[in-house]
Amino acid sequence: MQIKCNVLDRQFQMYQTEYEEAALRVLRSGWYVLGNEVRQFEQEFAEFTGRKYCVGLNSGLDALIMSVRALGIGKGDEVIVQANTYIATVLGITENDAIPVFVEPDEYFNIDADKIEQAITDRTKAIMVTHLYGQASNMTPIMEIAQRYHLEIIEDCAQSHGACFGGRMTGTFGISGCFSFYPTKNLGAFGDAGAIVTDDAAFAEKIRMMRNYGSKVKYHNEIEGVNSRLDEMQAALLRVKLTHLQELNDERKVLAKRYSDGIINPEIKLPGLREKAESIYHQYVVRCAEREDLQRALEQNGVQTQIHYPIPPHLAKCYAFLGYQRGAYPVTEAYAESVLSLPLYTGMTFAEQDYVIEQINAWKP
Ligand SMILES: *Cc1c(COP(=O)(O)O)cnc(C)c1O
C-alpha cells in the first residue's frame, strides 16, 4: 500500500458541490479582492473563535509580522518564542528587526511556561506562543506571567484552528491570534490566506489599514502599509470549509486516537495531551531514538512521513547572525532529531491507517 503524508483532494471531494458553487459565485461576481466574501468570512471566523474582530490577510506569516509591527515592536526589542517552532513564527519577529529570545519546549512540544520568566529582560515586549501540532499551550501560567510583566501575547494559531485550552479557544488569549489558511492546515484554503483575530478595536483597525497600503480611504495613506489582502475566492472557499471545521477536527481526533491505541512498539513514544488542553492533531508526532532508520523502513514499505522540523530556527543558516551553537537548546535539538509526523489527513481510511500502524509495530531498530 502507498500512504502519503497528506492527501488534499479527499477533503475537496467531500464537499465538492459546495466548493464549486462558492467558486462560481465569485467568478461571476466581477469582484475579486476584499469584497463581500471577505467581509462575511471575517464575521463568521470572528464568531467561530469568539472574538470581536477578524481581519483577513494574505498568509499566516503576514499575520505574525503585522501583529508585531502593529504593536510597535521593533529594533532592539525582545520577543520570547519557543525554540522548536516553525521558522515563520521567528520571522514574524526578525522581519521587524526585533530579537527572538528562545525558550525550550515542554513534553507536549509547546513553550515550557516554567522557563519563560528567566528569559525576560527589561527589553522584553511580548511572548509569541505557538500552539504547535494542534495542541493548545499551557495558557494559565503564560497569561499570569504576561500580566505580571506587562507583556503582550501573540498567538501563532497556524496549526490550532478550533483547539481550546480550558474551554477557551486558542487565538483568544493574547491581543492577537494569528492564523494561516495554507492548504495543509486544518482550516486550509485552496491557495495562500491568513487572518488575525482580536478584541481590540484599534489594533484591528491598524491591521486593516496596514494590509491595504496603509489606507482606510483609497489613496489616503496614513501609515506605511503592505499588500496583504485576502482574495474573494479564498474567502468564499474558506466560508464553506469553516462550516465543516468541527467535523474535520473530530475526524482527526478519531484518527489520532486510533494511532495512540494501535501503536504498541516500545521504541515509539506517543504524543501526550496536557490536562485542560485540547489537540486538533494538525500533526500526529511520535518520537523515536532511531528516527532515520524508522523513517527509511516506513518509506521502503510505502509509508511517507515528515519531520516537523529537522533544523530548529536557532541553528538555521538564516539565523547564523544570532550566534547560536549546537547545544544552546538541548530539548529542542533532541526533538529535532527524534520527532516524526505520521500520515494523518481528512478522508484517511481506517484500512490505510491500519497499514501504517502495522508497519510501525513490525519495525525493529
Ligand atoms: C504554516 C505556519 C505558519 C505560516 O503560515 P503561512 O500561511 O504559510 O505563511 C506560521 N506558523 C506556523 C506554526 C505554521 O505552521
What is the averaged pLDDT score? 97
Major β-sheet annotation: 7 strands, mixed
The proportion of residues in beta strands is 5-15%
Name the poorly predicted regions: none
The unique ligands bound to this protein are: pyridoxal-5'-phosphate
Tally of DSSP β-strands? 11
Q: What gap, in angstroms, lies between the N and C termini?
A: 22 Å
- Write the element-wise H/E pattern from the N-terminal end onward: HHHEHEHEEHEEEEEHHHEHHEH
How does this structure look, described?
The chain is α/β, with parallel strands linked by helices. Helices cover 37% and strands 13% of the residues. The protein is built from 12 helices and 11 strands. The chain has helices at 9-14, 16-29, 36-49, 60-70, 87-94, 139-148, 201-210, 232-242, 245-262, 291-300, 330-338, 350-362; strands at residues 53-57, 78-82, 99-103, 124-130, 152-156, 164-165, 168-169, 176-180, 194-198, 284-287, 339-342. The chain has a 7-stranded mixed sheet, with helices on both faces. Strands 6-7 form a two-stranded antiparallel ribbon. A two-stranded antiparallel sheet has the order 10-11. α2 packs antiparallel against α8 (232-242), α3 (36-49) packs parallel to α8 (232-242) and α9 (245-262) runs parallel beside α12 (350-362). The radius of gyration is 21 Å and the shape is globular. The two termini are 22 Å apart.
